[in-house]
Amino acid sequence: MQEGTKKHIENKKKLFGDLDEKPQEKEHLTHIEHAERKNVKLYETQRLMETELERMRKVNIAMHDTSEKLNKTDKTYGKYGENLSTATKVLHDIYRTQIIQNIVENAAMYFFFCACIYIFCERFYIWELMTVVTNVFFFTFGSIIDGIRSFLNLSEEDFSLTADQVTNEMFKQNV
Fold it and tell me: Where does the sequence pass through the membrane (predicted)?
């Protein structure tokens, strides 16, 4: 950039340097010499403008090439963007399919284990054993409850109170 600025300043001095001269010096020149000087300056200006025009053409070509490259790059990134969005959708579908497959596999596994437990219990009479153990437990538990009830002299009516009645009885005792 500075080189272009220096060149511009030099060209300006070449073209307009005689404007800074004192008017007295200009009067000593003849009209022909003065016209020749102006003619030389005009040719110099024309040459500089042609050089500048050529430089501008080169800049224009370079900018056009850069613009084309940027357009190609934009199209390439657009294709990559489309590919990325498609890949994201596919990954989402794969993830969803994987979740569904995990649910199905787990359900099948639980069903298999339940079937195995059922067959095992039927084969070794575990159901009957569980029924016996449960009956013994409830019989023993019921006997303990009956013993506690008889010890406390409670009737079955005492156990049939509603929640509101129990709350009222407790409130009466606290008052």
Answer: 103-120, 126-145
Q: Which two tokens stand for residue 53?
A: 């025009």
Number of residues in the chain? 175
Q: Which two tokens stand for residue 99?
A: 């979740």
What's the pTM value of the predicted model, to 2 decimals? 0.39
**The residue to which tokens 């153990």 are assigned:** 133
Q: What is the pLDDT of residues 64-90, one digit of tens each?
A: 999 999 999 999 998 998 999 999 999
Three-state DSSP at 30 gives coil
- Round to whole Å and give the CA distance between 152 and 97: 63
Q: Which residue has the tokens 């850069």?
A: 66
Cα dist. 34→15, 28, 31 in Å? 14, 10, 5
